[in-house]
Specification:
This protein is mainly alpha-helical.
Length: 71
């Protein structure tokens, strides 16, 4: 929601001050992820030189299936 949007703005400001700071890059990626803006998070991290992989998806459970499903 809104607080993650604000967090992303703060992380972007931190990156402007220290563009090589890996923690700031990952913080920005995490805040974009929490906004559920996955494509923006991946693009931002890739632009900063991080290796990024889509390893799954988040969805509601169906019926009585397990909480975590590895396919």
């Amino acid at each position: 929601g809104e607080r993650w949007h604000e967090a992303a703005l703060e992380w972007r400001a931190a990156l402007a001050l220290a563009p090589g700071d890996r923690e700031a890059r990952l913080g920005l990626g995490w805040s974009l992820f929490r906004q559920r803006d996955y494509d923006a998070a991946m693009a931002e991290l890739k632009a900063q030189g991080e290796a990024v992989y889509r390893i799954g998806k988040i969805r509601a459970r169906s019926g009585d299936e397990a909480q975590t499903l590895v396919v």
